Amino acid sequence: MEFQLKADLKCSGSVSEAVSSSEIAEFVKHCNAELLKKGAPPGCGAEIERWNVAGEKIGLKIVSDRFVRAHDALLRLKNEFGKFLGPHRIGIRGMEIEDYEIAMEWEEGLKIKKLPFVREIKQEEGMLKLFLDVDEFSLEKRIPDRIIRLLEDKKEAARWKGKKEHWELLFESNKKLFYFDKDPTEEMMKRGWIKHAAGRGQWIYGPQLTKIFRTFERILLDEVCKPLGYEEMVFPKFVTWDVWKRSGHAKGIYPEAYYVCTPKTRDPEFWEEVMDYYKVTNEVPLDMIMERIEPVGGMCYAQCPPFWVFLQGKTLPDEILPIKIFDRSGTSHRYESGGLHGIERLDEFHRVEIVWIGTKEQVIEHSKLLQEKYRRIFDEILDIEWREAWVTPWFMAQEGKAGLAELKEVGTIDYEAVLPYSGKWLEFQNVSVNGDKYPKGFSVKLQSGEELWSGCSGVGLERWAAVLLAQKGFDQDKWPAKFRSAVGKLPEIFRFL
Ligand code: ATP
Ligand code: ZN
Ligand code: MG
Questions:
Q1: For residue 382, what are the contacts with CB-CB under 8 A and spacing of at least 6?
Q2: What's the structural domain count of the chain?
Q3: What is the pLDDT of residues 73-87, one digit of tens each?
Q4: Which of 45, 349, 485, 497 could be bridged to 37 by S-S, CB 3.0 to 4.6 A?
């Protein structure tokens, strides 16, 4: 990696009048030998390649390798020049970045079209050249370092995408009898159990399927939550940007988020034009609304992040661990891609989110208990055919945690079941050990100073229903006995003429 930076230090007095150029030359030589090599291996570091002084300006051209990046060198020099000129009663008022060029080796196939704070990108012959558009403030905020980090992330993500190893079969259930070979969503529509709602990927669930959902919840409570000592909480369903910054979702949630906006002001006068327009046209004036609202976050996506605000900034006594809580208080929303399909892939869905918190050992141990309990449900109560797979999301590799994932300490187990009507496998829930990600993001500590870990598991009610009904069908006599008696009689309320 190569850095070339041209900048001016702006001084509070005329440097050329106060200091002779041989004195400056001596000082630059000294900086090149010591200051700009500090922390770098021998022969590496930064170098002032050219300098000139004109009145109150000191022009510098700095070249460097990755060991002392040129912007670091410049920040060091700003200080050092300050000390050098201090005795002459001259201070450094600021700096102007004229040009900043970063060049690095780059894979031909991975195109980079646009980057923040980069005015031009050239990509040729296995090299990537960035021409940055930065000022003093962005150098102090380490923007160039973050751009480099971002490029490394992009490289890693691309590498990860091409790999298959992040899906690994852990467990396969016995073969089970299937009693249905059609799409359960269509069957439910025919039976009047469900109807597509007004929104995209949104359904209205009639009394029958609702009763099935509630039965799933009860099974989950009786078989998992109660025996493992869980207590229920109510998590918020609107999520602020700050929460997503801390949970990491702010890095990539944008194409799938349901955005939430608030009015810029509540003043009815501010909104009068919108109301009048509607009254006159019967059309909701979207453009006029967009001008008057502000995006403040989004709807629940992963369910557990907004809970962490409850613990944010706190220190927990070790003896209350492990903590076990769950939430089933509302919907989750995702703007799904073309794959929207019946109740299998929805924009609005219902999920029970299970969260456990403890030391590393406790969290890993608890995940195993949870897995055992789930297996019992799928085997003995729902009697479905399913498999469990270890999946490593690429962001873990990116966070340097691929090693942990290989050890199977941090990562996710997806539970998948086959849908006989299509032969496809559908993920219907997961169990994740998240390491110290959330406690770190929300600054939660343990009294003993030991690392705090957490895990979570999302049970999708629509997915459970899709899987069960796809495999077992709608003839209740064919349903597994324990489930049948848990559901009881399905209510019949509506008839249409
Ligand atoms: P998929 O790969 O099917 O999109 P995901 O990996 O995005 O799933 P997670 O983010 O792990 O899913 O969410 C946890 C659980 O939430 C899933 O196992 C599933 O039960 C449920 N879920 C996620 N997305 C949807 C959706 N669009 N519709 C219905 N349920 C969903
Ligand atoms: Zn979660
Ligand atoms: Mg998804």
A1: 464, 467, 468, 480, 483
A2: 2
A3: 999 999 999 999 999
A4: 45
Nearest ligand 1 atom, CA 463 = 20
Residues 10 and 132 in one domain: yes
Q: Between 70-85 and 21-33, two packed helices, what is the crossing angle to 10 degrees?
A: 140
pLDDT of residue 16 exceeding 80: yes
CB atoms within 10 A of CB 232: 12
Residue 398 has pLDDT above 60, yes or no: no
**How many whole angstroms from 456 Cα to the centroid of ligand 3?**
16
Q: Is the CB of 176 under 6 A from ligand 1?
A: no
pLDDT tens readout for residues 55-76: 999 999 999 999 999 999 999 9
120 and 250 together in one domain: no
Same domain? For 240 and 360 the reply is: yes
Residue nearest to atom 20 of ligand 1 (CA): 460
* Shared domain check, 335 and 226: yes
Does 385 reside within a domain?
Answer: yes
pLDDT at res. 19: 93
* Distance of alpha carbon 134 from alpha carbon 485, whole angstroms: 67
Range of the domain at 63: 2-160
Given a cut of 70, whether residue 17 has pLDDT beyond it is: yes
Same domain flag for 134 and 246: no
